[in-house]
Amino acid sequence: MRGVKSNIMxxxxxxxxxxxxxxxxxxxxxxxxxxxxxxxxxxxxxxxLQPELESILTVSPLRRMQTSRGFYLSVQSSNCGQLxxxxxxxxxxxxxxxxxxxxxxPAMPKAFRALAQHAAECAGFxxxxxxxCLINQYQPGxxxxxxxxxxxxxxxxxxxxxxxxxxxxxxxxxxxxRGRSSAVDLSDGDVVVFGGPARHHYHGVRKLKFSxxxxxxxxxxxxxxxxxx
Length: 229
Ligand code: MD6
Ligand code: FE
What we know:
binds fe (iii) ion, four-stranded antiparallel beta sheet
C-alpha cells in the first residue's frame, strides 16, 4: 500500500494495510536463499547498533588488512569480542589481540550478542554462542571475492551476518568457487544466517555501487558473528 495517498480505502484494503503493518512491526520477511542460508529482511533497527559500532572503532580502529600474497583487501576491518579475524603476510587466523594496538579487542556489546543469538534462533540455530564479530566497512568500489569461511573451530555453529548502510549485492555459488551463483541485494537491517549444509558455501559481495544512506552516508557495514574458538 506504500505510495497510496488517499485515505479512502475499502474495508478489505484497510485490513490488508493493518496486516502488513503488523508484519513490519513484529516479524521480518524470511527468505530461504538455499538450504541452510536464511535471509531475515529488515530484522534489526541499525540505529541501535550505530553508537556501539562507533565506540568499538575508537578502541580498535578500522584498518586495511593484507593477504598472504601481499594484496590489500578493498574493505577496511576491525573486530569485537574474544577472538578477532586477522589477515597479514602470515595468512588468516583468529587472534585474541588486536595487532594494531597490542590489546584485546573491544568487548562484544550485549546488544550485538543478543541480536546475533536471536537471529540464529529465528533461522533454526538455537544456542548460538558467538565469541567474535568481524566488522567490515565497504566504500563504493569495494568488494569481497568469492570465499569460504572455514577458519572457525566449530563448523556446527552458524555465522550471522548483519548489513548496515547502503545496499550491496551478495552472491553465493555453493560448494565450488566457480559456476552459477544466486544473488540477493542486502539492505540496511537485513540479516543473513549461514549454517548447516551452507556453512562452507562460497560467497562474496559484488563491487559496491555509490549510494547514500541517511545515517551512514555512502558506506556499507557488515558485521559477521562467529563461534571462532
Ligand atoms: C558481506 N559477508 O556481507 C560479506 N560470510 O559483506 C560474508 O562474507 C559472510 O555474509 C559468512 C557468513 C555470512 C556472510
Ligand atoms: Fe564470508
